[in-house]
């Protein structure tokens, strides 16, 4: 479990550090740069946690039910609910990312059959395999 030091950092200094993090992320230009940076700055567990949070939002956006998400991602309905509530209250960033992901891949191609499926159908196939 990720922990924060009990020794406080002055609020204005923490604000500067967080701003520097935003600027660092915004400076990245390629998927490889983002990959390398996130692997440098996050633990394996933190990376998995963030990936699961994003996947919850993606699946909710695609109309999956809590039970389907719970089963696919091995997380509790309470966690799904917290993520959904956070998204509804503050989810401007999630909305931008979801739209961009949708625009990049409106359809997934099934390589074996050459058929095109809607993203929901492709996602269901992915989670069932």
From TrEMBL:
SUPFAM superfamilies: TrpR-like. It comes from the Bacteria. One of its GO terms (molecular function) is sequence-specific DNA binding. Transmembrane segments: none annotated. NCBIfam families: yecD_yerC. PANTHER family: LMO1763 PROTEIN (PTHR40080), TRPR-LIKE PROTEIN YERC_YECD (PTHR40080:SF1). This is Uncharacterized protein. It comes from Candidatus Doudnabacteria bacterium RIFCSPLOWO2_01_FULL_44_21.
């Amino acid at each position: 479990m990720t922990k924060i030091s009990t020794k406080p950092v002055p609020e204005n200094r923490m604000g500067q550090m967080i701003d520097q993090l935003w600027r660092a992320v915004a400076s990245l230009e390629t998927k490889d740069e983002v990959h390398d940076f996130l692997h440098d700055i996050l633990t394996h567990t933190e990376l998995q946690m963030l990936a699961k949070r994003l996947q919850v939002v993606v699946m909710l956006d695609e109309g999956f039910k809590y039970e389907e998400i719970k089963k696919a991602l091995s997380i509790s309905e309470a966690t799904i609910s917290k993520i959904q509530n956070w998204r509804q209250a503050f989810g401007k960033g999630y909305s931008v990312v979801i739209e961009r992901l949708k625009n990049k891949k409106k359809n997934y191609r099934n390589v074996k059959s050459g058929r095109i499926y809607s993203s929901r159908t492709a996602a269901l196939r992915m989670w069932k395999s």
